[in-house]
Each structure stands twice: as structure tokens, then as C-alpha cells.
Amino acid sequence: MAKQKIAVVGAGLIGLSTAVYISESISKCSVTVISDKFTPNTTSDVAAGMLIPHTYQGIPIHQQKQWFRETFDYLFEINNSSEASDAGINLVSGWQIFKTIPDEVLPFWSDVVLGFRSMTEEELKKFPQHRFGQAFTTLKCDCPSYLLWLEKRLKENGCQVYARRIEDLWELHSKYDIVVNCSGIGSRELMGDLEIHPVRGQVLKVDAPWVNHFIRDGDGLTYIYPGIHNCLQGQFNQDGLWSTPNN
């Protein structure tokens, strides 16, 4: 039986993770990753990489929790392996703080992360103007390191990687049996899906090795995330903004 030829379009975290999973899960297949951008020039390269989920309307909570648990368990296994440093995965503890008490005091993911609890009054004194907080330990991913680690695994698995801009997925139908679209924001043009739009964030990477705990505003708009190689300071949720330079 001939090998199934599978193309994965997109080389961000989703694209490379998908390609690795296919190559390691399906026998008798060849996997090719095709993208016009690779690390360090992908959207994933500037993602904060903190494993704290959002809640998405229209998707059952039990499904969202299952996705988060599977992701947490997968990255936790890497964290406990000798590959953790190369993959840029580490555990980090900290606080999520709120100026008003949230409707969801106990989020659906509270029993997935480690050591989830409400902050004490003494802890909250460190954050004036905040009335409520949550303390827990989760996983942090240094995305550029993780992308390089995924690329290494792809090459070890014998996968092909091509730098090429795809204008239409039908360009690939004569050469590949299966095409997996992982183009992310690029799907707006590639698939003509005008419902896809950017939600921009701005991230500063600073050298601050004395910062050991994350601090995240409860609405997710501002944060400090320490990682293996640097400390991220950021804010996000600029809906519909395409501009990429920090301002």
C-alpha cells in the first residue's frame, strides 16, 4: 500500500504540532509542512505562551475542559522530561487579580492547574485596588524555543518542510492525498473567511531573572509572565488591529 501523502499548511504552533502528531500517530504516511513563514517570523513567535484558558461561547464547557486538560497533561509530561529546557516548557506559580469579584470564582479549569486557591487577605494587600485573587501553578511555553523543538522532531521523523506561499488549497490537491489547513489568521485570505480577524497583543521581552511569579490582571489585558529565557510584559485584546510594530 502506497504511503498517504499529507500536507500541513502553516508553521505556527498549531501547524507544527499537528504535523508532529500525524507523523508519530499514523503509519505509512509522509508529512510535508508548507508555509510562507517559519520561526522567528510567525504569529506564534510572539505569543505569551501562558497556559490559562479563555471561555468560548457556543462550545460546551465540558469540551473546553477536556481540551485544556489534554493540553496541560501533554505539556506537563514534557516539563517532567529531559526535553523541557530545549522545548522551553516550565512550571510557574503566581496570581490572577481582580478589581471586582468575578462571576466565576471557581473557573472550569481550576482542578486542572496545580494548587488552585483563592488568595488570602494578606496576599491581596500587595495589590491595592484589587478585591479578589486566585493563586495557582500552571505551565509556561517559550514559543520560539518550542517551535524550534517541534521543527527538530519533524526532521527526525523524516518530514519535509517547504517555504512557499499558498494562494489556494487546490494548488496541492494533485500532489497530496490529504491537506490540513493550519494557516491561522492567514485563513482569512486563503479560505476567504471574513469572520477571521486579528486580536492584537503587544509583548515586551525583558531580562528580569529576579521575577519568579506571574501576575495577571483578571480581565487578561495586562500581565507579567516569567519564563525560562526572559520575562514577558504585555497587554492584549486590541480587536481588529492588523499593525505589528509595538507602539
UniProtKB/TrEMBL annotation:
SUPFAM superfamilies, A to Z: Nucleotide-binding domain
Localization terms from the record: Cytoplasm, Cytosol; Peroxisome matrix
Domain of life: Eukaryota
Reactions this protein catalyses: D-glutamate + O2 + H2O = 2-oxoglutarate + H2O2 + NH4(+); D-aspartate + O2 + H2O = oxaloacetate + H2O2 + NH4(+)
Annotated Gene Ontology cellular component terms: cytosol; peroxisomal matrix
Enzyme Commission identifier(s): 1.4.3.1
Residues of the FAD dependent oxidoreductase domain: 5-230
Principal location listed in the UniProt entry: cytoplasm
GO biological process, one term: D-amino acid catabolic process
InterPro entries hit by this protein: DAO, FAD-dep_OxRdtase
Keywords of the record: Cytoplasm, FAD, Flavoprotein, Oxidoreductase, Peroxisome
GO molecular function: D-aspartate oxidase activity; FAD binding
Assigned protein family: Belongs to the DAMOX/DASOX family.
Function: Selectively catalyzes the oxidative deamination of acidic amino acids. Suppresses the level of D-aspartate in the brain, an amino acid that can act as an agonist for glutamate receptors. Protects the organism from the toxicity of D-amino acids. May also function in the intestine.
Name used for this protein in its record: D-aspartate oxidase
Native organism: Gopherus agassizii
